[in-house]
Amino acid sequence: MRLGAWTRLLLLGSVAMAQTSVRAEFSQELWESSLSEFENHFAPVVRQHGAELKIERLWQSDADGGRCSRSQDGKLWNLHIYGEMARAKGTTTDSFAILLCHELGHHLAGYPFYSQYHYEWAAAEGQAEYWAAQACLRDLWSATPEVNSHFLQVDAPQCDAAFDTTPERLICRRTLKAIESWARYQVKKGGRVPSPERPDPTRVKELKVAHPAAQCRIDSLVQGMLCTRSFDFSLIPGRLHRMGQNSIGAENEARATSCFAEDGFKQGARPACWFKKSTTELAPPPGPNDDWRAKPVPGPGSGYSSQETMPIVLTKEVP
Predict the structure, then answer these.
(1) Nearest-angstrom CA–CA distance, 102 and 104
(2) pLDDT per position as a tens digit, 109-162
(3) Rounded to two decimals, what is the model's pTM?
C-alpha cells in the first residue's frame, strides 16, 4: 500500500512528535505531495456534483492561506493555495489540512451561504470552518488509522464524552491537536492566541457570513469536531433551495447532516459568535445590489478574483 504524505511523515517520526500534531519542515516537495493527496482524495466527491477539483499551487506567494473560485460554467472548482502557511513557523501537516478543508468547504459545506440567492455558491466563512472539522478532516483521516493511533495519549475528555468508538475518538484527538496549531497560525503577527478552552462569548444578532474573530474561528472548528452527525457528501445542504439558500427550508436540510441545539445536541452546534438561526421563510427577489455578477471586477484584496479580463465578474473568489 502506498502511504500518503500525512501517513508517511508520522510513521517515520516518534509518538511524542505525534502528540503535538504531525510536524514537519515544509519543503516544497512535501507541500506538493500533501496537495496531491488531498486533491486525489476529494476529486471523486466533487465529481458527484458535476465538477472537477483543481488546486492551483502558488508556492512562492507570501499571501495568507488560500482562496477558492469556480469557473464561469461552474464545472471547475478551484482551490488557490499559497506557500506562505507552509513556511510559517509551527505549521504542521495537520494544521495545513485545516486550511485545505476550509477552502474546499466553501464549495461543499452548504448552509449557511454568503447569500440567499442561487447565484451564490460559496458557504459562509464560519460554515467552511465548521465543516472542515465536522466533515472534511474526519473523512480524510478515516483513511489513516496508523497515524491516528499515535494520538491515543492526547488528553481530550471532550472527545471521549462525544464519541463511543476508539477510531472516532482518535480522529477527534488528532483534530484537537491540529486546531491548537491552527490557532497559533491565526495570530502569527501578534495578539492573544485563541484557545479551544476559551470560547468567544459574543452572540450575534444576525448571521455573520464574513470571517469572524480568531477565537470564534477556533470555536467553529471545535464544535465541528464534536458534532457526532455524519455529513452526507452527496448533498450540499440548502444549495439552490426554492425558498432561498439561507431560509428555514435550507436550514432544515442542514439539520439532517450536522448538529443543532434544537435537535438536542448539547455540543457540536455552530457557535453563536457568528451563527444565527434562519427566520426567513422565503427569500425576497434579488434587488439591483444583490447580484455580484452585475458589478465591475473589484481590485486586489477584495476577496474576488482580480485576474479576470472581462468587465463583469463571473467567477467569485473567496478567502
Answers:
(1) 5
(2) 999 999 988 888 999 999 999 999 999 999 999 999 999 999 999 999 999 999
(3) 0.86
Helix (H) or strand (E) holding 131: helix 125-131
Strands across the sheet containing 76-82 = 52-58, 76-82, 66-70, 317-318
Task: Give the C-alpha separation, 299 to 54, whole Å.
Answer: 24
**Among 236, 44, 41, 269, CA closest to 138:** 41
Beta bridge partners, 82, equal 58
What distances in angstroms separate CA 216 from CA 51, 204, 272, one per listed residue?
32, 11, 9
219 with 129: CB under 8 angstroms? Answer: no
> How many Å apart are CA 225 and CA 221, to the nearest integer?
6
Give the whole-angstrom CA distance, residue 8 versus residue 33. Answer: 11
Residues 287 and 269 sit within 8 Å (Cβ to Cβ) = no
Coil/strand/helix, residue 82: strand
